[in-house]
Amino acid sequence: MLDTVKAWVRQSQRMAVLTGAGVSAESGVPTFRDAQTGYWAQFRPEDMATEAGFRAHPQWVWDWYQYRRDLLAGVLPNSGHGALADFQRRHPDRITLITQNVDGLHQRAGSTGVLYLHGDIFENRWLNTPRHCCHIDHAVAGHPPYCDRCGNLVRPGVVWFGESLPPATLGAAEQAVARCDLMLVVGTAGAVYPAAGLAHQARSAGARVVVLNPAPSALDDVAQVVLRGASATVLPQLLGE
Ligand code: OAD
């Protein structure tokens, strides 16, 4: 099956790649849904990844994002991220990289133009629509930082459950998926929409869809081929020269 997919990669003129937390697992970044090691085995997503959760316990939630930022500062992109970036360097017009990850590791590996569906964990924004007093200079250090004039809180610039994805980014991803002839779905459980819907859209539009994951995913049935393996090993095999 690996050889079949390698041939599909060679033939492909327009490939879309959707990645999830699994591509960063071998860098030492926990996934969300893996039993025991995933963040959602330890925390409830409604506490840590919703606006209501943040409003209820701002310090706790803020500190968790700070912990994740610190963890990311101490890890490196792995050979899966590297294989995607190398492929783009060799074939800049043939790949669109779409990720649900907020960890910035694709960019650090050298990928450009990455479509970050769920935002960037290193960005901050105001929780409430900022009044004119909410200048970033007025953010007072704290857990979380807050506006010293009106008390508005700073929150992480990621997409939480119940929030819309950045429309331009989602639009660009949908366009890439509608035009692709091959879609690789790598390291995602396929449980979160609209991101997971991109694989369905690619298949409906006639593209070949390949899932790469060491464990069963909710998108296995959408794919013509499922490769069971770890992305840091298999992506270099698939995308290498
Ligand atoms: P999940 O944690 O749901 O899924 C991670 C997937 O990676 C699982 O299917 C694993 O089997 C797979 N995996 C583990 N190790 C791997 C490896 N070495 N190589 C390849 N795959 C591996 O993460 P996502 O599907 O990315 O959203 O989760 C989607 C969204 O749910 C996240 O963006 C996050 C989360 O809640 C928000 O925070 C809004």
Automatic annotation (TrEMBL):
It is an enzyme of class 2 (transferase). Substrate binds at Y65, R68. NAD(+) binds at Q100, N101, V102, D103, N213, P214, A215, S231. It catalyses: N(6)-succinyl-L-lysyl-[protein] + NAD(+) + H2O = 2''-O-succinyl-ADP-D-ribose + nicotinamide + L-lysyl-[protein]; N(6)-acetyl-L-lysyl-[protein] + NAD(+) + H2O = 2''-O-acetyl-ADP-D-ribose + nicotinamide + L-lysyl-[protein]. HAMAP family: Sirtuin_ClassIII (MF_01121). NAD-dependent lysine deacetylase and desuccinylase that specifically removes acetyl and succinyl groups on target proteins. Modulates the activities of several proteins which are inactive in their acylated form. This is NAD-dependent protein deacylase. It comes from Acidovorax benzenivorans. The lineage of its organism: Bacteria, Pseudomonadati, Pseudomonadota, Betaproteobacteria, Burkholderiales. The gene is cobB.
